[in-house]
Design a protein that fits this description.
Blueprint (H helix, E strand, L loop, with lengths): L5 E5 L5 E2 L6 H8 L7 H11 L13 H8 L9 H7 L2 E2 L1 H13 L1 E5 L6 H7 L8
Parallel strand pairs: 1-4
Antiparallel strand pairs: 2-3
């Protein structure tokens, strides 16, 4: 058996509880005033950028376009990215595992999150301190 050299942990859905398997996506839209009859307009804007959002497009750039498409105005300082992260939760069940693993192995993170999201998650202490 080969020696384990590195162990990676996925951020979204593993180190933290994101939108996976929840209705947080719908809750967010409703909290923002996007009613069920506006979901399709919201989705059209989202789909327009979905393939780029983890690569070279900042989620906050969509705000004005979503407002325009839906007719719903959000506060001037509203951040779609921050709203996402504010709805994430610490996954306490994995933190103790990370602590034990990092005593013996080098560990790292992998993620396909949106630009600026990981630094925001770290600033809110939603994942264990991993260098």
């Amino acid at each position: 058996m080969k020696n384990i050299k590195f162990i990676y942990f996925d951020v979204g859905g593993v180190l933290l509880l994101d939108y996976s398997g929840t209705n947080k996506w719908v809750e967010m839209r409703r909290d923002l005033g996007i009613t069920a009859d506006l979901d399709k307009k919201f989705a059209q804007v989202w789909k327009k950028y979905e393939s780029r959002i983890c690569i070279d497009y900042d989620a906050d750039q969509m705000v004005s376009e979503i407002e325009k498409a839906t007719g719903v105005e959000w506060p001037k300082d509203y951040s779609l990215l921050e709203d996402f992260v504010n709805r994430f939760e610490i996954n306490n069940s994995i933190w103790s595992i990370v602590d034990k693993v990092k005593e013996k192995y080098r560990i790292g993170l992998f993620t396909n999150q949106y630009p600026r999201m990981l630094s925001l998650i770290k600033s809110k202490n939603l994942i264990p301190n991993i260098k």
